[in-house]
Amino acid sequence: MTFTIPHSRILTVGTGAVGAYYTWRIQQSGNCTVTAVCRSNYEQVKANGIEIQTIAWGEGPHVFRPDHVVKAVPRETYDYIVVCMKALPDVYSIADIIAPAVEESPNAAIVLIQNGIGIEGPVKARFPRNPIVSTVAYIGVTQNELGVVYHSGPVQRLVMGLFEPIEGVDGPLALQIFGERCKQGGIETIVADDIQNYRWQKLVWNGAMNPICILSDLWTVSNVLADDKYKAMAYTTKNEIVALAEALGYRMPETLVQTSMITSTRLAEGYKASMVVDLEEGRPLETEVILTNPIRIAESRNLLHLIPTWYKLYNDLVKYLEDRKNKL
User: The pTM is what?
Assistant: First the structure.
């Protein structure tokens, strides 16, 4: 039986590749009004929308046209505030950025579609009465030119769950409505009881492959896997992250590392981990939430002995980035 979803006012903050693709599909679910916050691509999106190049929805052209396009977060009321900006707490505060809308929307659910561990805490601290829908995305999308998003392959999955229950607030209903809207928009959607488990599962790939791709100076995933030394390092590091997650009480699938290695081999030739792309483009890296936060947790729980390879990679990457910055 299909769940009837009420009309929703949706604000997407960060309408880059990920934000544009998922908001396009959410808009396709119908019965909603979508506002997109665009910065560098504002003029292009305002005039022409965003072209979505994908094989997942048949012959195009596919164009995402938000109902409203704005340059900054408006002081207006919404039902869902969807954050698709990268989690960069050492660069900017997500809570500060979304504050104008949240302050006008005391009942809005805040949907965080971001990588990493510990992303929810600062938002929860600032807005304790707004339910947080913590969401992990599995998709390959890039915006190589303004106003054009390229989707590689058919995968378009979201795994979502409530960060924490709030007494007197119907967070489960907000989660149910948003999850159903995503499903009706054609997104493969999993609503999970323990979303942090899935965050750690995704960290197994991100936490290992990002620093190895950079420090090996091989840059692409295919180059790393073609080198026996670094392929073995990737395997070891992924197993260490699994061991840490398990020690913290997150039961990981037994085949997770094996599946992660196989998935890596199936990526397109020349595919680069996200931190590599950010480094090349001169953008900040998600080191805080992908590496620093989980490693701080390991330190605080006296679990560093479980992650010797990963801990060294982390420290080597910090030094590498510092040296690189000093040379610029």
Answer: 0.94
Domains 8-193 and 197-327 equal at CATH topology level? no
The CA distance from 234 to 247, in Å, is 20
% the chain with pLDDT above 90: 81
Q: Which of 77, 71, 160 is nearest to 111 (CA)?
A: 160
The pLDDT tens digits for 204-213 are 999 999 999 9
- pLDDT band for position 36 (50/70/90)? very high
What burial class does residue 135 get, using C-beta atoms within 10 Å of its C-beta: 0-12 exposed, 13-18 middle, 19+ buried?
buried
131 in Cβ contact with 171 (< 8 Å): yes
Cα(128)–Cα(95) distance, integer angstroms = 11
* Distance (Å, whole) CA 43 – CA 147: 9
**Cα 113 from Cα 195, distance rounded (Å):** 12
8-193 carries CATH number 3.40.50.720: yes
Distances (CA, A) of 192 to 121, 162, 196, 205: 19, 8, 9, 20
- The CATH architecture to which 197-327 belongs is Orthogonal Bundle (1.10)
- 305: DSSP letter: G
Domains of the chain, by residue range, sit at 8-193, 197-327
Backbone angles phi, psi at 53, to 5 degrees: -95, 110
What digits encode the pLDDT tens for the residues 138-173?
Answer: 988 888 788 888 887 788 899 999 999 999 999 999
DSSP state of 272: B
Q: Please, are residues 115 and 206 in contact by the beta-carbon 8 Å criterion?
A: yes
> Does residue 150 sit in helix, strand or coil?
strand
Q: How many CB atoms lie within 10 A of CB 196?
A: 19
Rounded Cα distance between 270 and 286, Å, is: 21
Residue tagged 């037994």 (tokens): 254
